[in-house]
Write the structure tokens for this entry.
Amino acid sequence: MDLLTPRHLKLANWVVLSILVIAGYLGGGREFALGVLVGGLLVVVNFHLLHRFLKGTLERAQIDQENKGQAQAFLAAKQLLRFFGLIVIVYLLVRYGWVNVIGLVVGLSTVVLTLTLLGINEMFKLKNKEANPSHGTSNPLS
């Protein structure tokens, strides 16, 4: 099973966020867990929107080769708008103290943690494939 498909990445993001929220609640209390939840929701939704925008832009560029530059410019503008929207939301959350700041940072790390864990998983899969003599070439080196 390939864990690096967009569908599996999204699912893994939700699993990691759930684990972080539960661990945050057990280790830091309700306010900390709320910060983790809010930060995680922001970054997971942001990741989902990035996937949707990128997929839509690539599909439009593939169909309409003449306006490829326009589609790329539109994607860049949407990404900047999404990024500045995220900055404003984080600023308001921190400015007015609506969430625990450390919890928010932990939650905002959800996608990075997910990608790191899946990367480590892929590394172990490749390492095990190299170590297993039944995989790879038919001629053993020994």
Q: What stands out?
A: The first helix runs from residue 6 to 28.
